[in-house]
Prior knowledge:
The complex is a heterodimer of chains A (about 120) and B (about 120).
Chain A: E1 4-7, E2 10-14, E3 19-25, E4 31-37, E5 44-49, E6 55-58, E7 61-65, E8 71-76, E9 85-92, E10 103-105, E11 109-114
Parallel strand pairs in A: 2-11
Antiparallel strand pairs in A: 1-3, 3-8, 4-5, 4-9, 6-7, 7-8, 9-10, 9-11
Chain B: E1 3-7, E2 10-13, E3 19-26, E4 32-39, E5 42-52, E6 55-58, E7 65-70, E8 73-78, E9 87-94, E10 106-107, E11 111-115
Amino acid sequence: GQQLNQSPQSMFIQEGEDVSMNCTSSSIFNTWLWYKQDPGEGPVLLIALYKAGELTSNGRLTAQFGITRKDSFLNISASIPSDVGIYFCAGGLNAGGTSYGKLTFGQGTILTVHP
Amino acid sequence: SQTIHQWPATLVQPVGSPLSLECTVEGTSNPNLYWYRQAAGRGLQLLFYSVGIGQISSEVPQNLSASRPQDRQFILSSKKLLLSDSGFYLCAWSLGRGRALDNEQFFGPGTRLTVL
Lengths: 115, 116
């Protein structure tokens, strides 16, 4: 099956620094999504991307859908302590039928922010 | 607005005991529903998904089963729990309109299951 390679696996940064993480795939996705998970809670959708080359922002977060459809990145600017958590990328296919709504998740990036 | 509920929040069960986890969604109709398991805070493994009442697809052969008795209710069950069933179980929903927006999945708060 499809697999996503998410990197880095973990990051330790100082408050105020910018953060960048990415996901790559060996096959094409038509949708890329980024989630954040706080300890003991369910993941929360941050950004959804639907077009190759699309660049979308949500506050201090910016994500891009790669031109090849096989990658995506997420940037966080001016990090703050509440950015701590696990960030997951996910790729989706909308080829019709039961392929709708089935996502492939990356293994996550653990972000630690030191005050 | 839509909300998703899961219960119980935590559960400790002995090996060999049965399991029933419940998930309900409010504020939408005919959603796609999903059960995931997450081990050690990393990686979400899709267990089951459903596109309608009584329609269940299994992604991984295992000791678990799922049912969807009502449009917005999704249940994860087991007849006899194994130690390896321990983990964080997440339910999610997405629109079931047959479009790209179906890819946007929204997760519940999760159930922490410990099998002893």
